[in-house]
What does this fold into?
Amino acid sequence: MNASELREKTADQLNEELVALKKEAFNLRFQQATGQLENTARMRDVKRGAARVKTILNEKAKAAAGEAN
It folds into this structure.
């Protein structure tokens, strides 16, 4: 999912997305530790996706704080 699609979502939807990505990262780490992980590039994609969601959440929080002032 790219940043423009994420910016269209609400903060609650972004938080749900972040939780899902963190769960997936956890599962991928377990698969890697047990030697079952076949697509190692997926770990990188999940980490980047989580970082992207966090960035959008911070942008939204900053914009909301700016409107409050």
Remarks:
- The mean pLDDT is 95.
- The two ends are 32 Å apart (CA to CA).
- The first helix runs from residue 3 to 7.
- Residues 10 and 57 are 9 Å apart (CA to CA).
